[in-house]
Design brief:
mainly beta, seven-stranded antiparallel beta sheet, six-stranded antiparallel beta sheet, 2 helices, about 5% helix, about 45% strand, globular
């Protein structure tokens, strides 16, 4: 059979080593031999003996709760042996390797999957109290891989001067950075900030490190495409 979808570049990529890798720029492949954590609803295909367990708020269940879009990000545990393919509304997928001593803070809406060897903790982003959304992010530490998504090709900003980012455009950043929130009018931007989202604040970063910024903004209540697909199931997990 001859057709563009059957070209060599679209064939399943094989490897001798288990773990996560890019099938293509929009899809993650996990060659599973054990377990991994993934965003609920992100599975698009799998082969082999694979089990999926949604992790809610009870028992051992942890979930990434981020408030930048007013949504939560429930997790599922993926275990067994086989190949699992994950995606989120055809967003770009990027793999980040964490080494011992690294600490990365990630906007919950950008988390697609991560190795179960990594530890994560929900932390409040300092600087605003409870006056605004966008207070909670997840800090990952340990040794392993994380897959994050972006809407479009991101830019990595080196924070060597005060840096300001629209909260919905911030994907992840060095956990050692000092963060805060500033009203747009304090920066002389007025209503120009968040023209799409209505965001009245900009997020500030100071110190030494980096910030990854996507060329798009999550709309309030938009959340992740995989969350929308789950509908009422997500509501039950987040209660």
């Amino acid at each position: 059979m001859r057709s563009a979808p059957f070209s060599a570049e679209n064939l399943e990529k094989e490897s001798q080593q288990p773990g996560m890798r890019l099938q293509n720029s929009k899809m993650l492949k996990i060659e599973l031999n054990g377990e991994a954590m993934a965003r609920v609803g992100s599975m698009v295909a799998y082969q082999g003996q694979v089990h999926f367990q949604a992790l809610g708020s009870g028992g051992i269940g942890k979930y990434l709760k981020q408030r930048l879009t007013g949504e939560g990000v429930p997790l599922m545990k993926v275990s067994g042996r086989g190949d699992v393919f994950l995606a989120d509304l055809a967003k770009d997928v990027h793999i980040i390797d964490l080494e011992p001593g690294d600490a990365l803070s990630i906007n919950g809406s950008s988390v697609l999957a991560f190795d179960s060897t990594l530890a994560y903790e929900i932390k409040m982003v300092s600087g605003m109290g409870f006056a605004s959304s966008g207070l909670f992010n997840c800090v990952f530490t340990g040794h392993g891989r994380i897959a994050v998504t972006t809407e479009g090709t991101p830019v990595v900003l080196n924070v060597d001067a005060p840096t300001y980012v629209d909260p919905q455009a911030a994907v992840c950043w060095s956990a050692n950075l000092q963060t805060g929130y500033h009203r747009a009018d304090q920066l002389g931007l007025g209503t120009l900030i968040g023209r799409t989202t209505g965001e009245a604040f900009t997020m500030s970063f100071a110190g030494q490190g980096f910030v990854v910024v996507q060329p798009s903004e999550e709309r309030p209540g938009q959340g992740s495409g995989t969350q929308q697909q789950q509908g009422g199931m997500l509501g039950g997990l987040l209660q």
